[in-house]
Amino acid sequence: MEYPTIEQLHNKIVSGETTIKDVVQEYYDRAQASDLNAFRELYSAEDVAAQVAVAEAMLKNGTATMLTGLPIAIKDNILFAGHVVSGSSKMLEHYTASYDATVIEKLKAQGAVIIGRTNMDEFAMGSSTENSAYGVTKNPHDTSKVPGGSSGGSAAAVAAGLCVAALGSDTGGSIRQPAAFCGIVGLLPTYGTVSRHGLMAMGSSLDVIGPMTHTVADAEVFYNAFKGEDKYDGTSVATGEAHSLKKRLAIPKGIFNGGGFDPELEKNFHDIVTKLQAEGFTIDEVELPHFADSLAVYYILMPAEVSSNLARLDGIRYGDRAESASINDVYGDTRGALFGLEVRRRILLGTYVLSHGYYDAYYNKAIALRATIRKELEAVLENYDAIFTPTTPTPAFSIGEKVNDPVSMYLSDLFTVPANIAQHPGLSVPSGKSSAGLPFGVQFIGARSGESVLFELGKTIENVR
Amino acid sequence: MNTDEIKRLANLARLSVPEAELETVGKDVSSILGFVDKIQAVQLDGQTQQSADKTNVFREDVVAPLAANHDLIEAAPLHQDHFVKVPKVIE
């Protein structure tokens, strides 16, 4: 099923061919009827109607933007004042946001209509939404498969036409991997170009909010609507100078040697390479000796940051609380009872790598390797537009297939993690489907602030696939 | 990783782990550590810069409305008379 683009809907609204109310109602009705478990909560009809009224007023007084009146979904870890935001955890089941995230403020100012919050792995830790405390989301292409994660609810909602676009967050692949699994476009923006103010922190040096959409052009419009430097996020940066397209792509040498690839997916990638070459692209295999070490670096730095960031969820300040006698038992019992297994595993792992006697061997070594990986990527990207890979080694896997084997679950992020480690942007674009109808995706990792080049490359894929 | 080590980490992390789970969690953490241990073999030149573009970030401290004081207190699971309630900390 094909759904209209942001531009098509905007033009129809402006020309009077349709109304904001009708557009929102159509998506809202589909979302309400859906049994994918993509939404944690669809906001009330009154809530949505009030947002529609704001958008209609903007249209009337000539201040409408491309997003005015379009139904948008947000991941369940982005604060929307007055609304419950749970991180899809039992810990924050009843937590109501007391302020708006910067991205929400920007979307509101443009008259976007936020219709609901989407399911995710608990506090964004996972690759399948199976770690949500509220059940797995189903992949719209095959409901026995996962939608990917952690932004799996957002991916499924866009793919099934339950919203025009959705916000996700990406710490190690959490936008791009579910985008690939659900056959949509997902962008990890350059670290810092989108404010993290009001995003529930997971790995602060890795987290980025980004767009999940039907097309590359939609991703571009949506990203431009919420990017920008923010005084409330000290790591935020202004978007840098635009780069120009060289028509040169680099494939990390040896990525297909490790095995573990779905044969049809591997063939799809090679077919795309051939098609791009026919379009005049130069595509080389290049040495990136530490590219594949990114995943190990990630599973040291990320849990370390998780163990620090989640320390504030202690039963005192937010959410729910265990009724224990001593303060230490309140902390321990609240956290033990209300965090899911994967979150507890990562907190323990992070505590270990940061503890006395292990800090140098793990954390400091990982920090040093991170700098090396970034230098390697930057050197390659001086001569190439992007590093080009499949987004994932396989299409969507079955629900339950990897729950008992964390390391095999982590391997689905093998190609997405390097961009987060280097704080570079990455774009996943649908590139075809398997014989069973499951989507494949390809990924471009670009230079810092190289989003415009990634969008050009993505549009090329849309034309040749 | 044995159950005593997991207990020590759980205490450091203020995270109760039920007895029945100690062994499986220990196995999971060990298998992840086994996976990340390969970085020990990598030889490096010792760079340690964390962030790509920025070092220190300063700005003027300006008072601005963010959230209502009342809402922040209300977010705490136990509160009374505009205070967050906690168990007795000092004997």
Structural commentary:
The complex is a heterodimer of chains A (465) and B (91). Chain A is of the alpha/beta class and 465 residues long. Chain A contains 15 helices and 11 strands. An 11-stranded mixed sheet of chain A has the order 1-3-2-4-6-5-10-11-9-7-8, sandwiched between helices. In chain A, strand 10 and strand 11 form a beta hairpin. The mean pLDDT of chain A is 96. Chain B has helices at 3-12, 19-36, 69-74, and strands at 79-80, 83-84. A two-stranded antiparallel sheet of chain B has the order 1-2. In chain B, strand 1 and strand 2 (83-84) form a beta hairpin. In chain B, helix 1 crosses helix 2. Chain B is flat, with a radius of gyration of 22 Å. The two termini of chain B are 36 Å apart.
Features:
heterodimer, A: 465 residues, alpha/beta, Amidase signature (AS) enzymes, eleven-stranded mixed beta sheet, 15 helices, 11 strands, B: 91 residues, mainly alpha, Histone, subunit A, two-stranded antiparallel ribbon, 2 strands, flat
